[in-house]
Amino acid sequence: MTISAKKLKKNTPQAPTIWRVLEQGGFVLTLVVFFWAGKNTGVRVMGFSMLVFACHCLFVRRIPYGVEGQEPIGYLTGILAIFCGLIALGIAIFMILKPALVLDIFH
Known about the structure:
70% helix; 2 strands
């Protein structure tokens, strides 16, 4: 019984790209800041990482969606991707400028 190359390629883990490394590094940095610098600073760091995501969405204008770890089901493109990027940008700026209010909302 042979496994087709297409199936084998789908099931192998992806090589770490720069974005995956940055995502994982940002997650670890956020956890460290939350534990050592406090909640307000942690929310600000989350806001900065979300700001990077929002700028990436606005630049690329293509947002994949689907199940984590699998191929994307589809992509948000065009006006919808720009709209989602602007929403994320607004939330990121709000998290950076008013971290105490964000903590009150989610408390």
